[in-house]
Amino acid sequence: MEYMYNNFYELVERNAKEYGKKTAYFIDNKKVSWQEVKRKIDSFARALELMGIKKDDKIPIYIGNSLEYIIAFLGIQKLRAVPVPINTFLKEDEIAFILNDIDAEIMVASSKFANNIKNIRHKSKVKKIIWEGNCERVDEDNISFNEILSNLEPHEKIELPELNDLAVIIYTSGTTGKPKGAMLTYKNIFSNILGVNKIVKITQKDRFIAYLPMFHSFTMTVNLLLPLYSASPVEIIRSIMPFSNIIKQTLLKRVTIFTGVPDVYSALSRAKLPFYFHWFNKVRFYISGAAALPGEVLERFSKKFKKGKLLEGYGLSETSPVVAVNRPHFQKPGSVGPAIPGVEVKIVNDELVEVPIGESGEIIVKGDNVMKGYYKREDATAETIINGWLRTGDIGKIDEDGYIYILDRKKDLIISKGVNIYPREIEEVCMKFPGVKECAVVGQKDETHGEIPIAFIEVEEGMSIKEKEIKKFLKSYLANYKVPKHIYFVENLPKNATGKVLKRVLRERIEEYIKTS
Q1: Which phi-psi region, left, alpha or beta, contains residue 196 (left: φ > 0; alpha: ψ -120 to 50)?
Q2: Angle, helices 114-122/92-101, rounded to nearest 10 degrees
């Protein structure tokens, strides 16, 4: 694959030169031009340079969705330093762990997290903070983001990053053990942008909406850097709530590329939309990522939204993140589509030997999108990347057309009397039952079987479901050994910032549910 650019700042320069006063971002009913974006990035880079920031320094960004987030992200990269997005849902100790892992001394933070930062400062090496929002105190260790942009002369161009330089470190959610930092190069991310672009063919006429958290790799690549590459305007939404605002801005800004997680599409498929929505809706592609999209949601959504296609994709932070996506001209329900151009996918057994078409095994991935490795985790890197192939830890299969089907996470696999049970298969069937809003299946240790499947169900508001009714329904679709032995009804399933159910938490709480049921 040929790469026209070495870094993202070259895209900023190109867009400022070619599109100048055209809108780059919409935010809070304001328009920001490409020229203005470049000026702000240059000023921010100049401030960092004056603070002594240099190549390979790691700078955490702990702010919500905003123009400042984008300015910080790209300004840090201009100096060949490395931005480290921080999940704003993390607790103080979790954030302190990441800051200490990267030896951060300077961070960009939102003033709305000021109380958290006070404690985090004592647990880390951070000395200086660049505050986004209202800064209570301004001194040499507390710098105002707004003052930087207002008072500093733009940074002159110096040596820009190379294609193989480290572009960003994305910390994994840490579902087991401490989080690990996936090191992504410019080449990794550019390969992903080009691969996705060959499928959806983005142009400068397209418009994106960014309401999912910007710290997530899916939002970073698909909502921020892909439109930067195509010079497409982006509507920045600070919060997913109220959701009605997202629908409103999608119409007002004539959004054509809409990205979301399964929860969003589930909500849209059930929502009572204004009668004029379909008249003014310009969306041509709805892209789903970050978690598995239930077949029931895809079917319901497709019936309701005749215009535009919902394309389910698959990826990981370690793959920049997109691995596969369904094709607009040909989709297969239950599949995440074939690998994107430039990416290879295989299904292998425990000895990493490829299995025949249609058989299940672990998904491994190879391509320019595969991360450089885990930061400071040589052992974990060696276990994850073998001969250029990245072990995903996901169980799947590939059909004769190259379409990939995700069966489950390897660690979520339930083995009952030596037989494999895939929770996702049970969840898909469960979702078809009237009144089931969401379902998660995990394994519970059992002396006789080794493990037995247990289901946790979130019920639609105003609906009532009995355990025996669901079990009877499941038995008509599934073998008896797959039917959950116990079903627990919960108000809310525990989830991470992108809507992925935290099955680790459910497994930890099984005993609590047994006692209270």
Answers
A1: alpha
A2: 50
pLDDT score for 177: 61
Neighbours of 246 (CB within 10 A): 21
Poorest-pLDDT segment among 14-23, 302-311, 318-327, 344-353: 302-311
* Torsion on CA atoms 22, 284, 317, 92, rounded to nearest 10: 70
Q: What is the pTM of this model?
A: 0.84
Query: 214, 65 in Cβ contact below 8 A?
Result: yes
Does residue 290 have a pLDDT over 50? Answer: yes
Alpha carbon 370 to chain centroid, angstroms? 16
Q: Cis peptide before 60, with omega less than 30 degrees from 0?
A: no
In 10 A of CB 387, how many CB atoms? 7
Q: Please provide the average confidence, as pLDDT, over all residues in the chain.
A: 90
DSSP for 1-61, written as a single string: ---S-SSSHHHHHHHHHHHTTSEEEEETTEEEEHHHHHHHHHHHHHHHHHTT--TT-EEEE
Residue with tokens 């000021």: 114
Structure tokens at 98: 């990441």
For residue 321, name the pLDDT band (cuts at 50, 70, 90). very high
Query: CA 266, CA 57: separation in Å to the nearest integer?
Result: 41
Most confident of 207-211, 266-270, 416-420, 499-503: 207-211
Distance of CA 472 to the CA centre of its chain: 36
Q: In what order do the strands lie in the sheet with 450-459?
A: 436-446, 450-459, 486-490
Coil/strand/helix, residue 401 = coil
Domains in the chain (CATH in brackets) are: 27-162 (3.40.50.980), 184-410 (3.40.50.12780), 414-516 (3.30.300.30)
Average pLDDT over residues 420-432: 87
CB count in 10 Å sphere of residue 251: 17
Residue ranges in 356-502 assigned as alpha helix (H): 378-384, 423-430, 467-475
- Answer whether residue 515 shows pLDDT above 70: no
Where does residue 88 rank: exposed (0-12), middle (13-18), buried (19+ CB within 10 A)?
buried
3-state secondary structure of 473: helix
∠366-370-290 over CA atoms, to 5°? Answer: 105
C-alpha span between 242 and 28 (Å, rounded): 14
The distance of Cα 182 from the centroid of its chain, to the nearest Å, equals: 13
**For residue range 110-139, what is the model confidence (pLDDT) as tens digits?**
999 988 888 898 899 999 999 998 877 778
CA proximity to 416, closest of 373, 460, 364, 480:
480
